[in-house]
Write a structure and sequence with these properties.
By secondary structure, the protein is an all-alpha fold. The chain is about 90% helix and about 0% strand. The protein has one domain (about 5-60). Helix 1 packs antiparallel against helix 2 (about 30-60).
């Protein structure tokens, strides 16, 4: 498997982790943890956007 596969899998595991943090903080009623978890999710998604955008450009260039 390629490095790109493992990088993508790693980012998606971070997204799953952020989602679980969001659920746990909602269940606990901890608004600060919820805000932090939402920021963590947004950061992970912001890193995934160029990861996939770059992939599309590479596929069209080859």
């Amino acid at each position: 498997m390629s490095d790109r596969f493992f990088n993508g899998a790693g980012w998606w595991l971070f997204v799953v982790c952020a989602a679980l943090f969001i659920v746990a903080s909602m269940r606990a009623g901890d608004m600060l943890a919820l805000a932090g978890s939402a920021a963590f999710m947004a950061a992970n998604i912001s890193f995934l956007v160029p990861f996939y955008r770059r992939s599309g450009k590479q596929d069209h260039e080859e």
